[in-house]
TrEMBL record:
Keyword Hydrolase: yes
Domain of life where this protein originates: Bacteria
Keyword set includes Hydrolase: yes
Name of the protein in question: Daunorubicin/doxorubicin resistance ATP-binding protein DrrA
InterPro entries: AAA+_ATPase, ABC_transporter-like_ATP-bd, ABC_transporter-like_CS, ABC_transporter_ATP-binding, P-loop_NTPase
Length: 308
């Protein structure tokens, strides 16, 4: 199946010669959630702007559901809903009128039944007659999503969708995004909350200095680049780590009751078996073991360091 978004050799340079995007290649499949991670200034928002036709590209091609964004901008843009970082709403307008007006701006005929279903799916139906100024930050963010979906696009861009939203509302937003994916909407999100990408995304793309460093399935990425930490609870506290264990990267807790051993899951051997034997030989008795998989944040930082 052809990708719903295909980006080939995309470059954006400024008059100063600075590369905002540098030979970016990226294919996005229909119905997937892909998260774009990168530090500030990495090129995430520029990439979204290019796909949405708001940033003039220097070279390369972008097709959206088969439409070239340069040659057929209106047809390409009609396939896309965009929720920008900043909340931009007419504060004196009602939720219903805001969504209805946006649908009309895309040239679509009124469809109150669809808009009612949309607002209900976003838990906004009971707020339909409320003015935007009266809504909480989380509700305003939902109205932005409703506006972006008002013309029934196949693709939704979410640029920092939970910025400034508390933890409870952030999880509500995650549920909304999953429901949209279940309806077949392709979702591309940028986020600074790495746990958000780890929780929701089918694939993760890491971008830095305008270059795509890697695009990988979330689970595969975690498995390939993950590190694990083994915590060993000791039967008897230690004052120092025995010299016989100096070859291992062990860290002793302040209370002397826990040893921590970090190891790379990519290594042919973890060294755990030999370490446990050497602990026993040194007279160190282990009461309990607990392993911890590294977070996506650890993976992300590792990637940036490796590609620096």
């Amino acid at each position: 199946m052809a990708p719903i978004i295909s980006i080939k050799d995309l470059t954006k340079t400024y008059a100063s010669g600075t590369f905002a995007l540098d030979a970016v290649d990226l294919d996005i499949s229909k119905g997937e959630i892909i998260a774009l991670l990168g530090p500030n200034g990495a090129g995430k928002t520029t990439l979204i702007g290019a796909v949405c036709g708001m940033v003039k590209i220097t070279s390369g091609t972008i097709t959206v559901d088969g439409f070239d964004v340069v040659k057929e901008p209106r047809k390409a843009r009609a396939q896309i809903g965009l929720v920008p970082q900043e909340i931009a709403l007419d504060i004196f307008e009602t939720v219903w009128n805001s969504v209805k007006m946006t649908r009309g701006l895309f040239g679509y005929k009124p469809d109150d039944a669809y808009l009612e279903e949309l607002l209900k799916s976003l838990s906004l139906w009971d707020k339909k007659d409320a003015k935007n100024m009266a809504l909480s930050g989380g509700m305003k963010r939902r109205v932005m999503i409703a506006k972006a979906l008002s013309h029934e696009p196949k693709i939704l861009f979410l640029d920092e969708p939970t910025a400034g939203v508390d933890v409870a509302l952030r999880r509500d937003m995650w549920d909304v995004v999953r429901k949209l994916r279940d309806r077949g909407v392709t979702i591309i999100l940028t986020t600074h909350y790495i746990e958000e990408a780890e929780e929701m995304a089918d694939r993760i793309g890491v971008i830095n200095a305008g270059k795509i460093l890697l695009v990988e399935d979330t689970a595969t990425l975690m498995k390939s680049f993950g590190r694990k930490t083994l915590k060993l609870s000791l039967a008897d506290p230690l004052s120092t780590i025995p010299d016989a264990l100096s070859d291992y990267d062990l860290h002793l807790s302040e209370d002397g009751k826990t040893l921590t051993y970090a190891y790379d899951t990519r290594a042919a051997r973890t060294g755990i078996t030999r370490m446990i034997a050497d602990l026993s030989a040194a007279g160190v008795s282990v009461r309990d073991l607990e392993s911890h998989q590294s977070s996506l944040e650890d993976v992300f930082l590792t990637l940036l360091e490796e590609k620096a």
